[in-house]
Structures are given as C-alpha cells and as structure tokens.
Amino acid sequence: MINKILLSLCILFVCGIAAQVSAKNDDIGLSVNITMSKVGDIMEELLPIILNNERYNDPDNSPFIENKIQDLVQLFSKARPHFEGKTETFKISYDVLLLNIKEAQNAYKTNSVYTQNLLREITSICTSCHTQDAKQRTLFKGANRESFANDLDYAEFNFLTRNYPDAIKYFDKYLLASKKGTNEKQILSALNRELLIYTQIYNNPVKGAEHFQKYVATKKFSRYVNANLGEWVEGLENLKNSDLLKTNLDDFNNLETTVYKVFGATNKYDSAVVPSKRKVVSYIWLRGQLYRYFMDKSEKQEIPKLLFWLSIIDRATNYSHYYSFADLYLTECIVKYTQDPFAKLCFDEYEDYVTFSYSGSMGTNLPPDVKKELERLEKMVYPQ
C-alpha cells in the first residue's frame, strides 16, 4: 500500500510540475496539473498490480496493464510543453521518464519482467529531477506519520515530496531503531538519502560530517555498512577541510577549476575510473554546484561543458540497468552544440562507454543499430 502511495505521489510531482508553473504560462500550467492528476489516478490503479508479482503475472490483468501503460505514454507526452523553457537537465529528466514508459510499452508483450522493473524505476527518475534544486514541499502538507506503516516509508514519502527536515527525522528514527541483521540494502538506501540531502541539496557537508559521525560512533550496523559510513565521513571531512567550500562558484572559471580538482585531472577526464566511496561524496557535492550554476547562471557557451561534467558524475554515482542520464547529457551536448569544441569530447566519452558496454572476453560486438547511431553522431562532430 505504501509503495503505491509513494510512487503515485512521485508521478504527480514529476520534476515539480504542479508547483513550478509560471504566471505567464497559466494555460499550460492548468493543462499540466490536470494531466498529472490523471496520471496519479492511473497509478493508484496500476501500482498495486506492478508491486505484486502474482497479480502482475496474472493473464487476466494483462489487458488492463497494457492499456494503462498506453494511457501513461499519452499523458506524459502532453506534459512536454511545460519543459520547453527549462534547463537541459530538467528536460533530460523528463525525456528519461518518457523514454522509460515508452520502453515499457514496447517491451510489455515480449518481456513482462523487464517491463515491471522499468515501471518500478520511476521513483529513481523522479528523485533525479527533484534534487536538482533546493525547493521545499509546497503541497501534500496534510499527510502525517499515522498514514504510513513505518518510519522508513514516511521518511521516503517526505524525501520524495521535498520535505527534507522530516525526511531526515524519520530516516534517523528508522536507522536508530534498526538492529544488526536488518535489511542492509534498506539501511544503505536511507543513509544514501541523508548523504544526498546534506551534501547536494543543503550544500552543507560540515553538518553532514557531524550527522554521520554519530552513526560511526554507534557501530550498530553491519561491517559493510560501517565501512561505507567511515569512508563517507572521511570524504565529508576532506571536503570540509578543503578550500572548495570557500570558492565563489558563481564564477564559471572558479567552477571549472573546482571540477578539475574534484575529478583529479588538469586536462583529461577519465570516467572509466570508479571513484572511491570517499570520493563519491565530492562528486555528489559537485553535482549540486553544477545544477545550481546551470539553473541560475549558465550562459549558452558554457552548457556543453556542464553537460559533459554532469555525465561523468552520473556515470560514477547513478548507475542503472534501465536508463542513463549520462548518455543523454552527452548526446544533448553532441546534437545541440555540435560546433562547440567540447562536443568532440562528449562524443569521445560516449563512444568509449558504448564500446566498453558491448565489449567482453570475445571482443567488441556492437549491435547494428548502436553502430549506426554512433556513426551518425560521429559525423556531426567529426565531419569528413
């Protein structure tokens, strides 16, 4: 029940649609709000089936599921005008969501398990969009703890609806009440949410270090979780003691210098190197800085670099089997900023990763459609 509520709210709030409509776009805003309300109604019917394997695999439910996925594709397609005036990163989050649902529509008849997982990925896509700014919840203020089965579910609800103080409060209640042997994945997910809030959304790694030190001191979690916490605290302390927090990042030159420092390179980026857990802290913090600059300060000529940097961070911190923001950041850079020198770097990074993804002990085997797309993009930035 609670997962149904969380996911339907996430859909209703996709990328802040209902709360971020400008006065000059009242007609679009009204249309978007109506559309999203319809989406919420569909998800209330669909999600209890998606989240229950027995009901999902019941042949009698197949026509209903297929029809509802089709309705979602149509409704999300109608929401596109709202994103036309927003930054590339917001538009990309929307595109990923729409691609995710269209892929579910195409795959349902031939691979229902894959489709089920695609539909469950919706919460992660919503979160990627909500955390691009520091906006707080403007709706759903009436929901209280009694409406939810446990503290973790209520914390997740508050996180997804941008009520970050209560999210931290109830994540903490869940974590402090947990015992060794509690689902390790759930514990790490809750801790990751808190790391994201303190480091990226609040832009306060100092407070984050203090917060996680308390958990390190308790040593109440498994050895693996405690090791993660220890590295995060070390990363937060390193960030706190560096000069990065004192740098004026409203200046693009300063921002670029900071990117080089965090990535650990002066003239070449190397996304193939997976950062340590302590280094990931700096990546998460930097992502917040890039989003803020993107939204408030960016000039057109700076966007290709911003997209490239965000792709490197996403590849290192947000891997998913079902979608890739990194790929979309890179292709956006290639297609929309073809004449910019950084478009070549975007293509090189994209080509390297795609080639790596289809490589194994038997060599590289690119599917024909992937090879054709690579050739198309290459011609855009490396014309003969």
Number of strands: 2
Question: Unreliable stretches, pLDDT < 50, 5 or more residues?
Answer: 1-30
Spatial strand order of the main sheet: 1-2
SSE pattern: HHHHHHHHHHHHHHHHHEEH
Kindly state the percentage of residues in helix. Answer: 55-70%
Report the mean per-residue pLDDT as an integer: 80
The coarse silhouette is globular
User: Structural class per helix/strand content?
Assistant: mainly alpha
Gyration radius, rounded = 21 Å
What's the total helix number? 18
Oligomer: single chain
Proportion of residues in β-strands: under 5%
Gap between N and C termini, in Å? 57 Å
Q: How would a crystallographer describe the biggest sheet?
A: 2 strands, antiparallel
Task: List descriptors.
globular; disordered N terminus; 18 helices; 2 strands; two-stranded antiparallel ribbon; mainly alpha; 384 residues
